[in-house]
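Bumping my old thread because nobody answered last time. Still need a sequence for this structure:
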């Protein structure tokens, strides 16, 4: 009896300890001045607007550690080591990607997704050497739903690369120090560059709309650290009619700061991919393919 209790305890300790303790690589805001000092030190790639996912060698998890349940065909021949990336289909398809992942009735539509890899955690060497570990594995194991994100030298000016990606309806670019070893947390060896800045906050209150938004959400209050931000733009009709629950984590974009240090022109961008979508997507897939305006 004691043996069984101990076995259950250690199993639970391992599972919850793993989920709570795992840290991931995070992107710092773009520092163009730092990049300009030595542009040849960096590689760039497109920042995909997908769902962050982490394969630990056995199962697929969200950024916050929630286990995903992809169909078996999707993870067939996935490697026995960790890989980190984005579940993605195409530009401007974020809500549809989330709906596929969350909806058990759409499991066959995982065939429209690919796991786009930007990091191979815990491997030795620089960025390209770590990605080569996965490249070598894929050369001998057919895994059609894994794709390694191309990383290119920063030859052209950063602004021109970013402008081209934005013109093609991309979200932005990621800049990586090509010689940096693998690490977790957020520092300037990996940065995201966009035409706007973004942060996350927690919804604390909804405010009823007026005029054309009467009977719907007009705006909402969102907590970002010690600041309470009012956001009234960027939501589509489905969000305004079927808002997510209080406490949902969202990403908002803004354009610099005011003299008081507040985000300038805060605009709703998306619900965080591993947050509570049950309400927002309860309308039987309505507007699943519609992106935020």
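Sorry it took so long. Here it is:
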């Amino acid at each position: 009896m004691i043996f069984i209790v101990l076995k259950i305890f250690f199993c639970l300790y391992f599972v919850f300890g793993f989920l709570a303790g795992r840290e991931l690589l995070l992107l710092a805001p773009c520092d163009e001045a730092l990049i300009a000092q030595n542009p040849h030190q960096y590689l760039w790639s497109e920042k995909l607007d997908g769902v962050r996912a982490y394969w630990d060698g056995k199962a697929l998890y969200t950024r916050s550690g929630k286990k995903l349940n992809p169909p078996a065909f999707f993870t067939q021949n996935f490697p026995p080591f960790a890989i980190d990336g984005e579940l993605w289909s195409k530009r401007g398809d974020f809500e549809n990607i989330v709906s596929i992942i969350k909806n058990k009735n759409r499991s066959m539509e995982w065939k429209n997704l690919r796991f786009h890899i930007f990091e191979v955690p815990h491997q030795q060497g620089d960025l390209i050497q770590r990605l080569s570990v996965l490249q070598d594995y894929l050369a001998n194991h057919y895994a059609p739903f894994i794709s390694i994100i191309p990383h290119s030298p920063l030859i052209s000016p950063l602004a021109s690369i970013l402008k081209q990606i934005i013109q093609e309806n991309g979200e932005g670019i990621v800049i990586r120090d090509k010689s940096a070893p693998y690490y977790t947390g957020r520092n300037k060896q990996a940065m995201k560059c966009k035409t706007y800045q973004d942060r996350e906050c927690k919804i604390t209150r909804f405010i009823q709309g007026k005029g054309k938004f009467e009977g719907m959400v007009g705006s909402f209050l969102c907590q970002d650290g010690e600041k309470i931000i009012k956001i009234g733009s960027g939501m589509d009709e489905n969000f305004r009619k079927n808002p997510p629950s209080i406490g949902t984590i969202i990403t908002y974009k803004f354009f610099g700061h005011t003299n008081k240090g507040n985000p300038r022109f805060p605009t709703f961008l998306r619900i965080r991919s591993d947050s509570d979508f049950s309400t927002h997507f309860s309308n039987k897939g309505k507007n699943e393919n519609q992106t935020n305006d």
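Residues 1-21, 276-293 have pLDDT under 50 and may be disordered. Let me know if any region looks off to you.
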